[in-house]
Amino acid sequence: MTSVASTLPTYPSDEALAGDWSPATVAMPRRPHARRIAQRRKTYLAHAVSYVAGAAILLLYAYAGTISYAIAPAFLVSGLGMIGIFVVMSETGINDRRDDHYLTVFQIVGHDLIPLTFALLVPQIGYAFLCILFFIFGFGAIRMTPRQAAIAMGCTVAGLIPVFLFAPSIGIATTTPLERVAALLCFLCSLGQCAFVGLYGSSLRKTLFNRSAELKEAYRRIEELAELDELTGSFNRRCIMRMLDDEIARAQRVKTPCAVALIDLDWFKRINDAHGHPIGDEVLRTFAITVFANIRGMDRFGRYGGEEFLLILPETSSDAAAHMLNRLRMIVADLDWSALSHGMAVTISAGVATLNPDETADALLTRADKALYEAKEAGRNRVAST
Model-level pTM greater than 0.90? Predict the structure, then answer.
């Protein structure tokens, strides 16, 4: 006699079952709010590093005597101050009250003001400041909508007009060797910033791709869970009935036999009354495990209702179906059910019906149900065919 307990490790009970079939096991991304804050912090850090690099180049121009030493710290303080405003708004949750939680347009306009102002104040190296606009717009372009792009472009053009039309000649100082080095570093910094924006955009695309894959897997898992009976892990009634309709259509199309079996656990109410509902649940679970272990890959097994189950047997004749159900009946009866509760025995009865030409699912199930009734009337623990 086979022990019921020996079958359980292959199909976990309560805690493990919940771990296998619960929606909580579906991998989900971090909370959106925390993820947004982390992404904004990375953006602000990149901006801060850009301002520090720009200030270092301005110090080189100051050392060359091209500009005043006050320009570099003023530029750095202005940039970090602007970043600080957005950091405070981000950390206090102000950003999250808007649809665009990055405040893209506000950041572009705010950061544009700094290089445009310094281009007016120090026109002899104006192009060094104007190069920064490429970095600002590069970051903004990753998240801008067409409307935001139009607004940001309009504001930037409004700022560029006085710089080019009314300010002294805008240039880039390259008279001395040191100024040439500073100009080279300025353009190298701009190229590095553009490359960083490209890499940042690539990482965002990769993150979005991975998140899309996670969501697809979660959706697939949710769909799978929606088709399963929570207690037994077999297909639920809605799903098994859909499968029956599909199999009947296929069998009638390709002219192959198809059999179904309605299976009922004998005296199941007595089991619940005598041993308790938790034991009754374990009986249902163990029965489902046993069925899964003894049917073919093409067969479909689902909970039809209560202690009644439906087994679909594609490409199976009436005799073969009856033989399969009798074998399953003997396996179930031979299990050592006393491992669940002392003195307990469990048997099943089944009604088998084979699909007739042009027969509907309801008609087929009605015949299987009639056969099941005959098996019970004949004393249970048996299989009847129709």
Answer: no
